[in-house]
Amino acid sequence: MRNLASRFLIGIFAITLATMLAGCERHSKSESYYLVAVNTKLPYWQTAAAGLDKAAAQYGVTAEMRGPDTFDPQAEVKEFRAVVARKPAGIMVSVADAGLMAPEIDAALQAGIPVITIDSDAANSHRLFFIGTNNLQAGRLGGARIVQKLSGKGNVVFFTMPGQPNLDERLKGYQDVFATHPGINVIETFNIKGDSGTALDKTTEYLARTGAGKIDALVCLEASAGKDVAEALKRANAKDRVLVAMDVDEETLNLVNSGVIDATIAQKPFTMAFYGLKQLDDLHHYPLKSLTTVYSVDSFSPVPTFVDTGTSLVDKGNVDVFLKSRADAQAH
To answer: If DSSP states are collapsed to H, E and C, what string results for the chain?
Structure first.
């Protein structure tokens, strides 16, 4: 019996060792993966880069985030082309301008490089699938908050960058909610053009409006403007306005905690990049029969069309949970 048990344990060890060796053989530092985005210096994208690095370290592959540190869709396209020329194992891209990026994505797929979109989609391309926030739902969450805080009546302005797919979807979500509340009036949709400082100046202008033109609520559809709008509110001591922001960087969460920002909509950029790299790795090692098939209309598709990484509303009632989560992540 002792010999039988010994042979059994040896067999288990051999299987485990073979599995571990197979896993090591699957991955290599020569495998390179890229994430292409704009405004890469923003805290949002630094969080995504942390997810990218975490997955790359787990798999023992090479990964890098590339792209302009300003909002420059043309520069993003140029960076994407440069990455394609390196013939990587896979590419993730957050699309600043779908019209510009869609043909580039399709060209990369034609060249045999798997491409998935994260954060901001190019649904008109043949990208394999999208990983990110349900931006329509994110807008609806924010819209419901505005309606609640204004009791269904008031003037609202938006800060955004028209033409960026994810921001346009969020705006539509707000509009869907407001359509059933005729007392809510959208006064203006202001284009910050990638410069959040313009949001501060514009907010100062909005706060000067009185009477029937008074602005009751301000909505930021992207991450950077929220802090600048909040700064304008603080300078004017305007405590009677509602500000709904986007994302959960530490400064935004602290502004929610202090009450300057009423609420913010949480996304998961870390998860998008972390999960995205793992999916690209799988596509590299277990290739699809074709990268140019339109899988969104295939009932037997081996890949999804949309992976929703989740969204939630953060206010003073739950902001401590998000602050603790950030602190715990930084501690590790």
So the answer is: CHHHHHHHHHHHHHHHHHHHHHHHHHCCCCCEEEEECCCCCCHHHHHHHHHHHHHHHHHCCEEEEECCCCCCHHHHHHHHHHHHHCCCCEEEECCCCHHHHHHHHHHHHHCCCCEEEECCCCCCCCCCCEEECCHHHHHHHHHHHHHHHCCCCEEEEEEECCCCHHHHHHHHHHHHHHCCCCCEEEEEEEECCCCCHHHHHHHHHHHCCCHHHCCCEEEECCCCHHHHHHHHHHHHCCCCCEEEEECCCHHHHHHHHHCCCCEEEECCHHHHHHHHHHHHHHHHHCCCCCCCCCHHHCCCCCCCCEEECCCEEECCCCHHHHHHHHHHHHHC
Task: Examine the pLDDT at 21 and tell me if it is beyond 50.
Answer: no
Query: In the chain, where are the structural domains located?
Result: 28-133+269-301, 135-266+315-331
Q: Specify the pairing of strand 312-314 against strand 263-266.
A: antiparallel
Q: What pLDDT was estimated at residue 326?
A: 86
Q: Do 28-133+269-301 and 135-266+315-331 have matching folds? A: yes
pLDDT digits (tens, 9 = 90+) for 167-185: 999 999 999 999 999 999 9
CATH number of 28-133+269-301: 3.40.50.2300
* pLDDT band with cut points at 50, 70 and 90 for residue 60: very high
Superfamily of domain 135-266+315-331: Response regulator (3.40.50.2300)
Look at 23-27, 45-49, 227-231, 296-300 and tell me which has the smallest mean pLDDT. 23-27
If you average pLDDT over residues 46-68, what whole number do you get?
97
Percent of the chain with pLDDT over 70: 92
**Tokens coding 267:** 């996304």
Question: Is the model's pLDDT at 330 over the cut of 90?
Answer: no
Terminal-residue alpha carbon distance, the chain: 46
- pLDDT for position 172: 98
